[in-house]
Write a structure and sequence with these properties.
This protein is an all-alpha fold and 181 residues long. It has 2 domains: 84 residues, 434 Repressor (Amino-terminal Domain) (Orthogonal Bundle), CATH 1.10.260; 69 residues. The protein contains 9 helices and no strands. The radius of gyration is 23 Å and the shape is elongated. The protein starts with a helix and ends with a helix.
C-alpha cells in the first residue's frame, strides 16, 4: 500500500507540473546566483525573460545564471529593471566588476526606517568627531599619531555613504514596485 501511495503522489506531482507547464522548466539547482533567483522571483522562465530582455537570448541567460558567462553591465541593468530587483546592480558592481569590487560595498535591502536610523547614527558619530577631523586635516597631512582617529572617522564617512546609496536603492525599488502595480 505504501508503494501505491508513493506512486500516486509521484503521478500527482508530475501531473501538476504538466498542468502548469513547468515540466523541465523549473530549476532544481542549488546555490543559484542572484540573476537566477531574481528571474525566478519575477515568475519568468528563461524564454519569457529573453522576450522581455529583448537582446539577451535564453541561452545567454542560462550561461550567465550558471556562471559560464559573465554578464555585461548593460545586461544587468536591464535584468534589474525587468526582474524588478535593483539590488542586482549592486551585486554586479560589488562582486563581478573589477573596479566595483574594490570600491563598491555590497548592500542588503533594508526598510526605510532601518536606513534612516543608520544614516542618522552615522551622522551623529561624525558630528561628534568633527573637531578631531578638522585637527587632522588642517595641515593637509595625516600624521602617524592621527592615523587611528582618521581611520575611525573614515569608517563613519563610509557608513554615511553606504546609507545614502541604500536610500537611493530603496527609492528606486519603490518606483519599480509602483510600475509593477
Amino acid at each position: 500500500m505504501r508503494a501505491a501511495c508513493s506512486f500516486r503522489n509521484s503521478r500527482n506531482i508530475i501531473n501538476t507540473f504538466k498542468e502548469n507547464n513547468l515540466m523541465g522548466r523549473r530549476s532544481v539547482k542549488e546555490n543559484k546566483n542572484p540573476y537566477q533567483l531574481s528571474r525566478e522571483a519575477a515568475g519568468l522562465t528563461r524564454e519569457e525573460a529573453s522576450e522581455k530582455l529583448v537582446y539577451i537570448s535564453a541561452d545567454r541567460i542560462e550561461k550567465i545564471e550558471s556562471g559560464r558567462l559573465a554578464a555585461h553591465p548593460e545586461e544587468v541593468m536591464t535584468m534589474a529593471s525587468v526582474y524588478k530587483n535593483v539590488m542586482l546592480n549592486n551585486y554586479y558592481c560589488s562582486h563581478e566588476c573589477p573596479i566595483g569590487q574594490k570600491y563598491v560595498p555590497e548592500l542588503k535591502m533594508k526598510d526605510i526606517s532601518q536606513i534612516t536610523l543608520e544614516l542618522l547614527n552615522s551622522v551623529n558619530l561624525l558630528n561628534q568627531d568633527k573637531e578631531r577631523f578638522l585637527e587632522i586635516m588642517v595641515d593637509g597631512e595625516i600624521q602617524d599619531n592621527e592615523q587611528a582617529d582618521f581611520e575611525e572617522i573614515k569608517k563613519n564617512l563610509e557608513e554615511i555613504s553606504a546609507s545614502v546609496r541604500m536610500l537611493d536603492i530603496w527609492l528606486e525599488h519603490q518606483a519599480l514596485l509602483k510600475e509593477k502595480a
